[in-house]
Automatic annotation (TrEMBL):
Domain O-methyltransferase dimerisation, chain residue ranges per copy: 53-110
InterPro entries with a match to the protein in the record: COMT-like, COMT_C, COMT_dimerisation, SAM-dependent_MTases_sf, WH-like_DNA-bd_sf, WH_DNA-bd_sf
Sequence ranges assigned to domain O-methyltransferase C-terminal in this UniProt record: 188-370
Pfam families reported in the protein's UniProt record: Dimerisation (PF08100), Methyltransf_2 (PF00891)
Key words, A-Z: Methyltransferase, S-adenosyl-L-methionine, Transferase
GO biological process, any: methylation
Organism: Novosphingobium fuchskuhlense
Domain of life: Bacteria
Lineage of source species: Bacteria, Pseudomonadati, Pseudomonadota, Alphaproteobacteria, Sphingomonadales
Protein name: Methyltransferase
A GO term for molecular function: protein dimerization activity
């Protein structure tokens, strides 16, 4: 006879244990006792710090935003400086600059040096060498405007315009079932496509680094990057796999940008074909044994995402491969990135959700793919990866 507990019993035990644990944690007497007792004090301090970070995260993010917008990260990267030079660069008074730099130093963005001088801190250095992360910090002004009243945002109809859905014009089109902007070459949509394409191009390097380290692209003959933007991913992969034939599919306004950036690239242009249309309405081009969807599926709700997977399946030859690269929910060491950051980001955008690899796997199966597997990336927080075969 097995003495293992069945599922409902285990669930009941877990619930009782969590109930007991939380009653203990909420007891002022337990909190006082554990803060005073030498063996539990380090745990209490660490949990209090974590709780404080949850409370103050927005203020920390705004300190970082001020350093980036005020040019202080750039200045500190040039070498140590004094407060007056920083004040000059940021266009702030001396007292305000000192307040900001002290805040930045407490967060690891800056660091103090003897003689009241300042230099980059460790986290400041990691961010300074990452133009994509810096572009996202600037872009967060839109996200934080939408999140100023989080309950109002969550109560509102997701089809209502938001700062983020105005920025990502195609996302609102996808959510409302409209024809995606730019499909008919509508001149009014070209500036919107240029703005979001520039942000995507700026942040693409950190993503392509992850995928190129995780997957051998040179085992394929031809790759079609669906939703490929202005071609930063195609260029990175084309450089790493010099024999690979390349294709890019996107909305017309975006493909026009790709033509400008890639058309004159002597390494890429001779093996590149550009295709425009809507992946939610049109068939995808054939003749590619690898299709990539990089930061695409999480933009779309389940029905359009499944429609897109079916279109990819139909365009691939027998034995063909789909590579999905995007930040995924439940990522190792990045649970908050998936469900808290992208969960709310994509809610504010009005379309899409972060998915767990198993959820993507189930969608791949129902789109007709024969098999799928997750492949590890160095930084799942930046990008996870799944390979599926026809
Ligand atoms: C040498 C010494 C002293 C010590 C050695 C110890 C050691 C090894 C230290 C390590 C130091 C180090 C190398 C640190 C590296 C840090 C890294 C790699 C940091 C990376 C940070 C990346 C960040 C912050 C990325 C942020 C990305 C964001 C916010 C992306 C947002 C994307 C969005 C909103 C996308 C939107 C697209 C849409 C609409 C969803 O489709
Ligand atoms: C989040 S961006 C990702 C761009 C690029 N793959 C990257 O990672 O940098 C989404 C891309 O999908 C394209 N897109 C959105 N809806 C589309 C549609 N219905 N048909 C074709 N492309 C579309 C957008 O124009 C944009 O370039």
């Amino acid at each position: 006879m097995s003495n293992r507990l069945d599922l409902p019993q285990r669930a009941g035990l877990k619930e009782r244990w969590i109930g007991w644990r939380n009653r203990l944690l909420m007891s002022p007497r337990f909190q006082q006792w554990s803060a005073a007792f030498p063996l539990t004090r380090p745990i209490v301090r660490a949990r209090a710090r974590r709780a404080f970070d949850l409370v103050a995260g927005f203020a920390y993010a705004q300190v970082l935003a001020a350093c980036v917008e005020g040019g202080l990260l750039d200045l500190l990267a040039e070498g140590p400086c004094d407060t007056a030079a920083a004040a000059n660069r940021a266009g702030l008074g001396l007292a305000a600059t000192e307040r900001l730099l002290r805040a930045a130093a407490s967060l690891g963005i800056a660091e103090t040096l003897p003689g009241e001088r300042w230099t980059l801190g460790m986290d400041g250095a990691a961010l300074q060498c990452n133009p994509g992360a810096r572009a996202m910090i600037r872009h967060h002004a839109l996200l934080y405007a939408d999140l100023a009243d989080p309950l109002a945002l969550l109560r509102a109809d997701r089809k209502e315009p938001t700062a983020l859905s105005d920025f990502w014009t195609y996302a609102r089109a996808s959510a409302t079932g409209m024809v995606p902007p730019g499909r008919r070459g509508d001149a009014d949509n070209a500036p919107a496509a240029t703005a979001y394409s520039a942000l995507m191009a700026a942040s693409q390097a950190m993503v392509s680094e992850q995928l190129i380290a995780a997957y051998k692209f040179n085992r394929h003959k031809a790759m079609l990057d669906v939703g490929g933007g202005t071609g930063a991913f195609v260029r990175a992969v084309g450089t790493a796999a010099p024999e690979l034939r390349l294709g890019l599919f996107d909305l017309p306004d975006v493909v026009a940008g790709a033509e400008t950036t890639l058309g004159r690239d002597a390494l890429i242009a001779p093996r590149l074909s550009l295709h425009n249309g809507s992946f939610l309405h049109d068939a995808l081009p054939t003749g590619f044994d690898l299709v990539t969807l990089v930061r695409i599926l999480h933009d779309h709700d389940d029905e359009p995402a499944l429609r897109l997977l079916r279109a990819v399946r139909a365009a691939l030859p027998p034995g063909g491969t789909l590579l999905i690269g995007e930040p995924m929910a439940g990522a190792a060491g990045g649970a908050a990135m998936g469900d808290a950051y992208f969960g709310l980001y994509l809610w504010a955008m009005g379309s899409g959700r972060p998915r767990r690899p198993a959820e993507l796997g189930a969608m791949l199966r129902s789109a007709g793919f024969a098999s799928w597997k997750e492949i590890p990336t160095h930084l799942p927080l930046v990008c996870g990866a799944i390979v599926a075969r026809v």
